[in-house]
Amino acid sequence: MRTLLITGPGGSGRTTIAAATALGAAGAGVKTLLLGADRADTLGAALGVRTGARPVRVTPRLTVWRPDATAGFQDDLAGFQDRASTVLDLLGASRLDPEEVTPLPGAEELTLLRALRDAALAESHDLLVVDLPPTPQALALLALPEELRRYLRRLLPPERQAARALRPVLGRLAGVPLPAEWLYETSARWDGELAAVEAVLADRRTAVRLVAEPGPAGDDAVRDARLGLALRGLPVESLVANRVLPQDAADGGLLARLVTQQRKFLGEWGDAHTVAHLGRDPRGEDDLTALAVPGVGPAAPAVEWPVADRLADDGVLVWHVPLPGALRDDLDLIRRGDELVVTAGPFRRIVPLPSALRRCTVDGAALRDGELRVRFAPDPALWPRTR
Q1: pLDDT (tens digit, 9 = 90+) per residue, 183-221?
Q2: What is the rounded CA–CA span in Å between residue 235 and residue 237?
Q3: Strand, helix or coil for residue 112
Q4: Is there a single domain that holds both residue 272 and residue 170?
Q5: Cut 0.90: pTM above it
């Protein structure tokens, strides 16, 4: 199943474009699932139907699903209270009833990730279109599975989990209590769920469609989004310039200046697909079809981070990391063991080093043409000797 993630700055019309994209794909004969997680029914408002926790079939080939974050949060809390009942009783804590629980901030995003995993595993559709939150929140959401798995591995390393059968003996020898069995089981379950989400995001058929209005704010948002997505290894399938006014929208005045500004940025966004302003908020299938959003084409090229072998010429290996729009002054690199901490502007990612680079030391780095090139020199103590 192909997955298309749609995001853009707040107020850019990304939900409308997501609905129009899914509707267009379904109209072309592709069995499509449109997924959203807004607490308000913005998808339903665009499509002219009510959506909710149960999937709703809008057309013969289009289904819309907006999972319930409240129910998911209540189930998780109830499960946690059951597994930690002994600890809670020792502390004298009183349990929370489902009726008094409201979702905490971030519950919608976690619910969306789970729904993304469930939809991909079900494989009951050919295309999954996901209406992500605005770009800053979307980038944080897309980083969450990898970062949480890293935290779990640090807190409960696999070697400690492997020894859990010896927990009573080890506890007596060490003289300190060891984590309870339910903690290992919970960690393994979370790791499996997060790994499934990571697999969807890393799939070569997964890409991102950016939505923005042509203008200074939209241009800044697009540049940041391209950088953040490249750092996460996610390709941009297309850029949709939304709410574009016609050239003859006005002969003078403020509207004419807005048209001129839009044309300026459209010229700079040479590869953007333009979607005309309807003169009203789109509502229903007729309006969404009139938007004429681009169809879902072939899978976008994957974002590769290749390692170039220049040992014979320069005595180094070079790791090429694409970072479009990155500025030299906003870049930072830190080597930590077998990981490289890459900071680019407001974004950061901790990346495991490829096996060959783990036996090297960092020899320098340079940013050229939107690509970070990190040089690694073989460590004589670790690198195999040549005869």
Answers
A1: 667 777 778 888 889 999 999 999 999 999 999 999 999
A2: 6
A3: helix
A4: yes
A5: no
